[in-house]
Amino acid sequence: MVILTLNCGSSSAKYQVYDWEKKDILAVGVVERIGLEYSTIEHKANGKKEYHSKFSSPTHKEAIELIIKMLMDEEYGVIKNLSEIGAVGHRVLHGGELFKQSALVNDEVVEQLKKVIPLGPLHMPANIMGIEAARKAMPDVPQAIVLDTAWHQTMPAEAFMYAVPYDWYKKYNVRRYGFHGTSHLYCAKRAAVLLGKKNEDTNVIICHIGNGASVCAVKNGVCIDTSMGLTPLEGLVMGSRSGDIDPAIIPFMMENTGMSAKEMDTVLNKKSGLIGLCGMSDRRDVLNAAKEGNEKAQLSIDIECHRLRKYIGGYATLLGRVDAIVFTAGVGEMGGHIRKGSCVGLEVIGAQLDEHKNDVCHCRNGEFEISADDSKVKIFVIPTDEELVMTEDAFALMNGTYDVHTNFHYTFENKDYENKGRARDLVKNIEKNPELKTILAMPK
Asked: Which CATH class is domain 2-147?
């Protein structure tokens, strides 16, 4: 059976096609610039030439229609007809307090999602448009929503409540929700495998570091705290987001500059973080500038790592015992300098980085241990696989095997798990850099 996953952003639609029986990725792709003067599609299928093209996509409806057409294309496609698709999984940013678990889609679910739009006005409309377009194109195919916020629903009240008037929570649902849930969940399960422990016996701190970034404290296999809040703005220093600041800065700057609330929101989300500090958001550009003597770039790196260390140290006190620290997502997987800066001083909690392992670990297709041999706390680099989480949930919901008590049902936590597409890429990386073999931690 084939499972299609869709991740619709405000102006993009990413997709993956997964063969459930063969446990292999058949195709991946992305449609970008939806709603602009022209859109683009990039499509990659196993054993076939890559396809790139421009086309007109005023809405997500046209994007979904083209994706389906590409999947059945005689030259570039991977299926013969839509009957081969057994389920569709949709990534959804925010479930508010209405959705605490993944769910099969019906008309009522779509209407409920629309009620959550105020909590994610930039992403939720696109998520919903993608769902509606896919349902119209594939009305007979079971479809599921997988929510970024669901993984964090196990947080206790003392972690998710803010010290603001209680009515804000009751009337407006103001609380910490957390994001990157599919990534944190995947890494928590895989860390347990690498540690040789049961999920319910595992305490880990997961650092998802990309353009957006968050930290998650996992105790006994479930989330007990996370750095992002009502929205993805709170927490770490990010590519263009400020993360934690004194709330009084907002009215202070509005009074001094005349900015409106909407303008201030734009500044904090799109013109702050690393862009605000040094004018660059790509960590590679920031690092190269720092090496060339750019003081603002170096300061940006120092501030980002300082914030990360504060969260890791704070979460260590919540956990009491830390089994592992995990780095994931684009920067977490590839940015050795950020990992190194984030681990400075963590010897106090028993975490010791092996700098050589860290320096040679630039591979997004394998799981690696980069801690020193005598480190009491393991340090892992685990490439995230949010698409697989979506695939697993869609399959489990469709087949009635979704565990409503634990929220999730996954085969990838098993020691015999293998993603063939990832394994192929891993072999190529090891061939280029044999040193990676010495730190390879992916179980066979």
From this structure: alpha beta
